[in-house]
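Sequence in, structure out. First:
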Amino acid sequence: MGKIKAALAGVGNCASALIQGIQYYRKNLPKEDNLTTGLMHPKFGDYRVEDITFVAAFEVNRKKIGSDLSKAIFTEPNCAPKISDVPDMGVTVKAGPILDGVAPHMREPFHVYNKNRTKPVDVAAELKESGAEILVNYLPVGSEKGARFYAQQALDAGCGFVNCIPEFIASNDGWAKKFEDRKLPIAGDDIKSQVGATIVHRALVDLFLKRGVRVDESYQLNLGGDTDFLNMTVEERLHSKRISKTTAVASLIPYDVPTRIGPSDYVPHLKNKKICYIYLKGRKWGNIPLHIDLKLSVEDSPNSAGVVADVIRAVKIGLDRGVGGALTSISSYCFKYPPIKIPDGQASQWVEEYIQGKREH
């Protein structure tokens, strides 16, 4: 079926983990369609992970702009763990608009370019010239204007769109309608990690409910040391993130439960490692109390990359089939704030039906 041509808005740790991982599987993926470490779908429809190739990338970091994408992914402040060497990709990172993608306290850590010396490119024109079919949004949390700018550029260029951040685009009826009218698929919002805080929290809540336990209280506290967590030390940039993460868990519970979910602190020496503490209090048979305290430790960026690899292939299938608008199946399965919020088991079934052509979206 050929390659899947994707572009990146943001070349941070998540982009690094995704590109490195694709190169790793390109070298190590067995030809059989059996279970493979780290892959939810070794083959997604007609597409394998190694079919994903990157043809364009946009950044505001002056140290990354002008570099080959293979080098930019290892440029500071990136600190994603090393998965694989990446050969020259022949893709030069271009300057994207700054907009609200960088909080004031992040300008120096992000090495933001000087507007008097560097001008942003015409993103839609670059997407068209590169032949990109899908644009993946990896901007920092809180980039409300930036996310909508890149969504519009995808529309103007005729690209599908993957919104990995907690800005409500795929879940917004107006934006979904724009993509539907153009017969372009969109998936989002706010990527859910392979085995991360949200999916584990959801699994525990689902277990309580299915086993007849009344959920009384819950919280989820997250610590990390990369630029994502440094960016999120500004509470104003966290409004949509807290909504997204809280809704992902609370939507499973058919009654109100006191809860607190979201990023909690920046610990520099953790680098790309994320530490999550999950607490649940409930009542079981005879109103007897039950408590769960759980600690999860993961390398954050690779945890999302394996999911994005599935989303890109799902959007490509949508393009092949001429499907426009929000892809509800892959969005429900892979994102914290999808257009339709359903249990993970049901979402998984929807994805399999979508792959088989039994479900349009």
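Second:
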Amino acid sequence: MDTTDKQVAKALLSIRAVFLRPGEPFTWASGIKSPIYCDNRLILTAPAVRDLVENALADTVKSAYPTAEVLMGTATAGIAHAAIAGHILGLPMGYVRSGAKDHGRQNRIEGRLEPGQKVVVVEDLISTAGSCIETAQALRDAGAEVLGIASIFTYGMKAGLERLEKAGLQNISLTNLDAVAAAGVEAGYITDREAAQVLAFRDNPSDESWIGGTKEQ
């Protein structure tokens, strides 16, 4: 039986939530060219994959963060996943805005959060880890104890891993770029050579030599 990371990788590829396209790279807002594009919002419109992912998120929270009292989603992509996983676990949930509202009560954290409560941040995708670190800091500033992060997919980029470590945050992802690349080869979406290109990108996104093939050692 496939491990969770492989099951989720296959599921994301099956609904095209993840595109692997080394020969025609995508361009990020930063200008960096990428052989992969991930849109985990598509999980919500694929009931079978949604069930797999949300139950796996709930299992991750139960096993890795058994004392969790509240789930908090990152805005906006983590909100629905925090809500569904929270429902499965019978836990309250809320979410953290990217910035405080400029009207009403000017909340940044939506949903009830008491000082000292133990919180798990739910994120859909981690690249440089900026959004989940900002979310965790907002929760800490509000007096919460942030146990860590449960995410669906991580690129495993060095910069993101280093930023998480510096922030004192543990992240546990359901799947990762290695699993997705391997599943892509197995399903015939990409070749072994293209998988190597994908992983070379992960190792150094700013070095575009992967576009012409794997980096020389």
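Remark: The two ends are 35 Å apart (CA to CA).
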